[in-house]
Amino acid sequence: MLDYKTVIDTLDSNFIKELGEKSRYFSGSLEKAVWEGIDIAYILELDKCKGKNILDIGCGAGWFLYVCKLLGHNPIGIDRIDTENNGHHAACTKAYDMFGYKVYDRLVYPLQKIDLDGNKFNVIVSNRSFFPTRPIVWTKKEWLFFFNDVKENLIDGKDFKMFLSLNSGEKRDPYKNMLKNKKSKWGPIELEQYFHNYDATYKYKSLNTKRKCVKGNIIHVKDIGGLINLAEDR
Questions:
Q1: CA-CA distance, 2 to 106, in Å (whole number)?
Q2: Residue pair 77/101 in contact by the 8 Å Cβ criterion
């Protein structure tokens, strides 16, 4: 089983030192960011298979994707790429070069298809995601468009899993705030019930791992049937 030291020992020590100095860009600490990547990979049982095509939306520095690469998979990321000397995205760009996988300079927008040159995936992940809240908080309309785009254009085969962690804490739950402010009737209860009806889950929780460093509003689609039902909204 991979752990923090095993992952770090595969990389150049000077590179790790540089990332450590920029630790505020990586989930608060470098160690926590690496453990998050490891935890999600094991939640999705990626240690029990090889050769899966994996997409990480908003991949940040890419620790989850690097863990997937070490486990024998084919990772691709989406995030804003910035070559400035300072800041979150500039630090991440240096990490991509070291890790050696493809990251598309993309953002996910409501009601727009995700163009990744025809690549298709067995696993789609997004941890600490903000795309369903910017520039607007997604409603059922935006979610249906997103799931249909995934179903029609991004899925490779019948073996499929999706894992989305929408934010890093309950206080930042956009749907809770929408309901409180009465801007929408589609609040957290309705959203949770919607996913439950279609063989997926949506719930605020800390995941049951030793470190419990992955938490937020988790959307977990365990199989292709659940995603198809979500996309078709039967």
A1: 30
A2: yes
Distance, CA of 140 to CA of 117 (rounded, Å): 27
> Distance of CA 156 to CAs 13, 40, 102, 113, Å?
36, 20, 18, 17
**Strands annotated E in 30-73:** 53-57
Phi, psi of 217 (to 5 degrees): -90, 105
Please, how many CA atoms are within 13 Å of residue 167, restricted to the half-sphere of its CB? 17
Is the Cβ–Cβ distance between 7 and 32 less than 8 Å?
no
Residue 59 has pLDDT above 70, yes or no: yes
* Bridge partners, 79 (sequence order): 105
Delineate the domains of the chain, giving CATH numbers in brackets. 4-232 (3.40.50.150)
Q: Kindly report, residue by residue over 195-217, the tens digit of the pLDDT.
A: 777 767 666 555 555 555 566 66
In sequence order, the β-bridge partners of residue 124 are: 55, 162
pTM for the model: 0.83
In angstroms, the CA 197 to CA 173 distance is: 21
Distance CA 204, CA 82 (A): 32
